[in-house]
Amino acid sequence: MIISVNPKDIDKMKKLLFIAVLFFAAAAHETSAQDKPNPTEVARVTGYFSYLMPLVKFQDGESISNFSDGFAMGFPAGFILATKSGRYGYIFELVPIIAFSEGTSRMDNLVFNPGIQFHIPGGWNFNALASFETSGRYGLTPVISKTLRVGEYTSWFMTVPVPVRFGANRPTSLEFALQLGFAF
To answer: Is residue 126 within 8 Å of 116, Cβ to Cβ?
Structure first.
């Protein structure tokens, strides 16, 4: 089997790989400079559920709106194991994607997103997620999130995921989405 690859796609992949290496190098530096944990404080587990709305995808030189030919939405759910220092946590997330088109709906994809969440002062977080789809695609999903409201037992948050995907004999894609959810 011979696979032909467009030279422009190779250049894009090299740039994305370079960005990913820089990203993970910065993440490794951040995790190596942690505060000393408090031995009396325990690690904390937080669960969450949210609604995901893909907005636009850039693939093969085109921009494709989520609303142009049907509609897709997702329901990310997962948990975060926060470390004792409270500066970062480990994320395990599953995202079922449901697609609607021509009057029907179906589960289109299931995405597994393991990764690391870095806590930034002021209620901001940065998530560095690896992504694996049942469609055969894989990639990285950097996410910026902001806590909107903190209650006694729950908090509301909004995120902007930016999935980058490779594989499954399809061109590299970059997507922007919006996500609203609550943590408990």
So the answer is: no
Tokens 């930034």 sit at which residue?
120
Q: How confident is the model at residue 1 (pLDDT cuts 50, 70, 90)?
A: very low
**The residue type at 92:** F
E strand or H helix that includes residue 141 = strand 138-150
| Gap between the Cα atoms of 144 and 118, Å rounded | 10
Tokens of 120: 């930034």
- d(Cα 119, Cα 124) in Å, to the nearest integer? 6
Say which residue the tokens 């789809």 belong to: 133
Domains and CATH numbers, the chain: 43-183 (2.40.160.20)
Rounded to 5°, the CA angle 25-27-29 comes to 70
Q: What is the DSSP letter of 86?
A: S
> Which DSSP string corresponds to 143-172?
EEEEEEEE-SS-EEEEEEE--EEE-TTS--
pLDDT in tens, 81-90: 999 888 999 9
Q: Are 163 and 139 in contact (CB under 8 A)?
A: yes
Smallest CA-to-CA distance from 74 within 91, 57, 55, 87 is with 55
Q: What is the pLDDT of residue 106?
A: 96
What is the pTM for the complete model shown? 0.76
| Chain center to CA of 67 | 21
